[in-house]
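Here's a chain:
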Amino acid sequence: MSGEATQVHSQVKELLHHLSADLYEREEGMHLALLSVIAGESIFLLGPPGVGKSLIARRLKFAFKDGISFEYLMSKFSTPDEVFGPVSIKRLKDDDKYERLTENYMPGANIVFLDEIWKSGPAIQNALLTILNEKVYRNGDVDTKVNIRGIITASNELPPATTNLAPIWDRFLIRLEVGNIKKLKNFVDMITNVNDVYEDKIPTGVKFTTAQLDDWSSQIDQIEVPAEVINTIQVVKVKLEEYNARGIGMPIVTNDRRWKKIIRLCRTSAFVNGRGRVDLMDCFLLKHCLWSDPSQKDFIQQTLVQTIADHGYSLSANLNNVKREVNDFQEDINAEIRIPHTVSRDQLMIVDDEFFEIVKIDSKFRGVYVKVKEFRGLSVDESKIINIYDVEKNLVNRMQGQKSKKDNAIVISHDSKPHEYKLKTKVEEKTEYIIKQPHSILKKFWDERYNTLSTFVNEQLQNLESQTPEEIKNLGDNLFVDEDLSEVVTRNYDKTISELKELKLTLEKNQYLYTQS
């Protein structure tokens, strides 16, 4: 991480620390909102009233040193004048020009928060779509470039399917559900906290300037998107198409423009995290960008986890071939030096999964069964009290018992002396192996195979352990993705390391087998 990259990461990390203070279980929303601002994108917050959606937006404006914010609560009675500014009477009267006074309204702001967005009328929607599409506001007959860094919108509902709001809905790249506080401690801390959550306590030195964000934007475009990330995106796209083709749920529709914006969002995450290339942790941001209905979120999350775990960092080790060769090597050794033969042995027969049956040789002893657990707890050196059961598995007596020195037998004391009884057995056949000494020529041949395979496995292990991808070392430091997901990213890599170590151990066992025979 270069000095400048470290500085960016440190600044944003500190800024997020201040912005998220006293936002109990709203940290993810704040982090994603700030990410959307740096990327120049928009975010939609879905949730019931009173869960902090507007608080996130109002706190976000504190991130700017010289920023201008605008917020508005939409209703069906909202007019364009209230959002985009009133018509200039002077310009209309003197110059016959229809022009709005946009200062202090949405076109003149850097951070915009529009609450209950779906309640806006067509006139507002049309102008808003142009701003979202092109960052341009048509003021009268002049197209004016707006300097809006981020648009945060919120609602307690999704856009009605019967309206023409799909184009606007599609422009919200990040979509996040916000709910009530779940953890009891956080709930108690929130309701007892007396701090003013709307007070700007952020040090001026960590705040953004518009010039700084302009400079960052050009650097973000230079962030590398490596092959493993492109591969992951492609696999996810195919899986979503397969899901849609099955018709088992609401289709997950994602157009080319959204995919392009997703890549830039991942680039932004990489840049802010101080990296020169996107990594697989950044790909988890897709879970906030692909759903159109909350019912789709679980499938998208599962798809991302499975894809990143199975198609993570491409590894140079060709384990399929070496596994096959090690298996063939083991089979050749076993076929040559392990001679199978069958042996028959008496094994104690367990009745009803918990009893051994006593084979009686006299009529004075009433017992039929002893419990397996009790018998196995006996020794040949001393006796202890055990339970004796009749044919119905009822307890009929408690007597002194101990293991016999003979196999599969028990000693039970009654009539003032010990009596030895056999326990019922069954004959079981078992295959055992006799190990024979291999011919010296064959042994030499096996040594050559062992050395070749062992050298390859050791080289692959050394390569993977010494050339660990740089991204893997700092996966837990991502400011926008839960660090617990780093385990998913490293799963494929760790699995390969584990399999190589297992192959190494298998080779060593086989070498020991034929050299010690």
The chain has a mean pLDDT of 90. The chain has four domains: 3-213, 227-310, 319-337+434-515, 350-423.
